[in-house]
Amino acid sequence: MKNSVIVLLVFLIAFTFGSCNNSKTSEQKENEAISTKASLTANVNNSVKDASHADNVKYISKEVEVKGDVEFPFTFTVDALKKMNVVTIEDFVVVCQSGSEVKENKSSKGVLLKDILEKAKIIQTNHKDRNFYIVARATDNYMATFSWAEIFNNPTGENVYIIFEENGIPIKNQGDMILICKNDIKTGPRHVTWLKSIEIKRVN
Ligand SMILES: Nc1nc2c(c(=O)[nH]1)N[C@H]1C(S)=C(S)[C@@H](COP(=O)(O)O)O[C@H]1N2
Ligand SMILES: [Mo]
Description:
4 helices, Sulfite Oxidase, Chain A, domain 2, five-stranded antiparallel β-sheet, alpha+beta, binds molybdenum atom
């Protein structure tokens, strides 16, 4: 009986010290992981607001600002778009990255992003100066990014539009203007509702 108590005590002491060291390191690791995760989440939450309700009228933007490395920065409204080369886009389906179908437009009316960028004229110092990125930003800070080559040297350039009308009706709750990329595999990510600016930036 006495022996077994001593053996038990020895085991208990050994176990306590052994696991103490282990648990300290794993606890530290866990804490590090948690704080990294927390700061990542904080960054994401700071940049994109949780505006998942499509009918959130407070995010509606009446104009879009074109700015950055361009010769002629300008701001446009739906009325200004209507004076440009308006095209009709047939059968556009919005598919979330998750795979679920969110919206289906039989027809949409809009203007090519390329036409807008040509109007603003990207400042290029020579023909090799073509490493630019274009950020389409919404009032809730949701963003989609394009590259110069995608727009000016790739079929995608003929598939990126700023639309103002869906199925014959002006865009209201998600508007006034939405940027879309018709040839994306999942069209949800680069479907920017409440569009407020187009920023052109040179890669440094
Ligand atoms: N401004 C803005 N545009 C956005 C989003 C957003 O949160 N804000 N969500 C995107 C996502 S994840 C998808 S799938 C599509 C379709 O979402 P909808 O339900 O807003 O139409 O819009 C995209 N456009
Ligand atoms: Mo999505």
